[in-house]
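Narrative progress, year one. The postdoctoral researcher (J.K.) led the effort to move from monomer predictions toward full complexes, under supervision of the PI. The following entry was the first complex the group processed end to end, covering 202 residues in total.
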Amino acid sequence: MMRFVPPRLRAPVSMLAGGAVIAAVVVPARGWVTLVALVPLTLVFATGWYLLGGRDSDFGSLMRDKADERQEYRRLKTQALVGIVMSAAAGVAYLAALASKATLWPLSILIFVPGVTFIVGWAIYREPGGGQD
Amino acid sequence: MRNRVREQRSQRGLSQAELAAALGVSRQTVISIENGRYLPSLPLAFRIARFFDLTVDKMFDPDDEETGT
């Protein structure tokens, strides 16, 4: 469906759609007052993303979904760093929750999902007929 | 790895933006390649060499290992 949306508008449109989904989930549980924060935040992020997409820079290319191979490589390295930091943070938060006897299951998901995703990704991204693992 | 991208581009009187448009990459990537901060992929290296009517080994000199991706 996104193929029909201009590249620069894809992320902002996704954000607006995400905001609508969050609103649909949160409003019934917490009331209309949540929209006071959600609507401006969503609009600011979507507009900001769109405006940054107009800049002649690596970040601008990324924002408008027009990254070339170097920018994609930079994005991948950045995402890998985010994954590592998030996993470490989840580990620390899990230990903290364990020590304080807090609810563990949300953090267990944060620990479990990256581990499983790594195994799945390792299997998916092998070259067909490639070397041994 | 040294390359002759800047030299060849200058000889043809092209701007970095024009070369970037011809190669289908960003101007920032052309700058990074010229400065030796980014090693292009093999397909892009071939595109660059073909654009300048040179072979890849004429365009890129592997003997100088000073820079990398």
